[in-house]
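Record type: monomer structure entry
Structure origin: computed from sequence
Chain ID: A
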Amino acid sequence: MHGTGRLISWLTISLGGAALVLMMVQISADVLFRAVVGQSLTGTVEIVSHYYMVGVSFLPIAYAEIHNRHIEATVFTDLMPRPVQNGLRWIALILSLIVYGLLTYATAIEATKQTAIRAFVESGTMRIVVWPSYWILPVSFGLMCIVLVLRLVRPRAELIPSQTLSS
């Protein structure tokens, strides 16, 4: 399980980080081009909004779960006995798995439709292919489902050992 957690963690943070760097480079190039030439690079808004923003926003979801970085409101549950807290954790994990499973399914259907029609957007006189960007969501949600299943199968085990978190 440690290997799976590490792989998902590395994959999501690498792809999300790459999308962030590419977005910064493209926007900076667009600003520079606009300052020097007087016009924007064609397709910057479309590429940033369809690819980079989606990747930056959704790819790290599984990473956050692996590293226990999702927001938790434990004001009331901290006052409950340990067995009740554990039961609520199980319920939350199962509900999360159901929701992320449905999100994976629904976004995969949409991605399949967009792939079938080879979806694109027009920017000026250019057509920018956007159907591959529709696959970012089902991949992100699917990885989250894997992490949740790992949490359910081995609830007390860490997905990545604590000593590797600081390095």
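Annotation 1: The chain has one domain: 2-69+80-157.
Annotation 2: The radius of gyration is 20 Å.
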